[in-house]
Design a protein that fits this description.
The chain is of the alpha+beta class. It has helices at residues 56-59, 80-87, 90-97, 163-179; strands at residues 6-12, 23-24, 26-35, 41-49, 52-53, 70-79, 100-101, 104-115, 120-129, 136-147, 151-160, 190-200, 203-212. The protein folds into two domains: 6-79 and 185-212, no CATH class; 82-182, no CATH class. It holds the Pfam family LmeA.
Length: 218
């Protein structure tokens, strides 16, 4: 993780003497305005951990270090802006460029993500097949579903534009569905699994569990 606007950890221990032994009843981890080294960004990440052994000395340095892997319930929220910024990062653009269309790599520009009131997601982008190709305005609207607790999928897509834009949109949907695997985007030391996904008020919220080997630090 590159930076956060706010990072808060609340440790629960009763009696407090447990801390001296590195044992806690649980702790809450809340990060806001999180930006990853890849350029991806997250509005809110909350994790609630039950009893676990920690490195007591690290707390005084503002860090949380656990002595063995643990599991936490989690909530992750991304705004429209987070999603739009993330789809325009070199990290994702380079992954999208690995898709070829009519023998040419695809170059994406000004990708915009919109979260609709009917709980669908709209993806619009200017896509050039090859460096010298004319841009094609791709417009995809789809429902989002979670597959195998880790893959976010575009379902029942609708396509805007002319025949070429629709054809390219179909190819792109399949490619995006192969990319949106949470294991590719998780923070170091964490494995994320989603049980429920909700789109509301221009925000995408995922609820599930995190298998944690280490906690991210500022």
């Amino acid at each position: 993780m590159k930076q956060t606007d706010e990072l808060e950890v609340k440790v629960r221990a009763e009696p407090v003497a447990k801390l001296l032994q590195g044992s806690v009843d649980g702790f809450d981890f809340v990060g806001k305005g999180m930006k990853m080294h890849s350029g991806l960004q997250v509005e809110v990440m909350e994790m609630y951990v039950q009893a676990v052994s920690i490195d007591f000395g690290a707390i005084f340095k503002g860090q949380v270090k656990i002595k063995q892997p643990t599991q936490a319930s989690m909530r992750i929220m991304l705004t429209e802006e987070d999603l739009t910024v993330s789809f325009n990062t070199p990290f994702l653009v380079e992954k999208l460029q690995k898709l070829e269309y009519q023998g040419n790599p695809l170059y994406f520009d000004k990708t915009e993500i919109t979260l609709n009131d009917d709980q669908s997601l709209r993806m619009q982008s200017h896509v050039r097949p090859g460096e010298a190709g004319d841009p094609i305005d791709v417009d995809i609207t789809a429902r989002l579903e979670v597959e195998d607790r880790r893959k976010i999928q575009f379902m029942d897509p609708d396509y805007g534009g002319d025949e070429q834009a629709v054809e390219l949109g179909k190819v792109l949907t399949n490619h995006v569905n192969s990319l949106l695997d949470l294991d590719q985007f998780a923070l170091d030391g964490m494995q994320l699994r989603v049980d429920r996904l909700r789109l509301k008020d221009k925000k995408m919220t995922m609820y599930g569990n995190a298998n944690i080997e280490q906690f991210p630090s500022r």
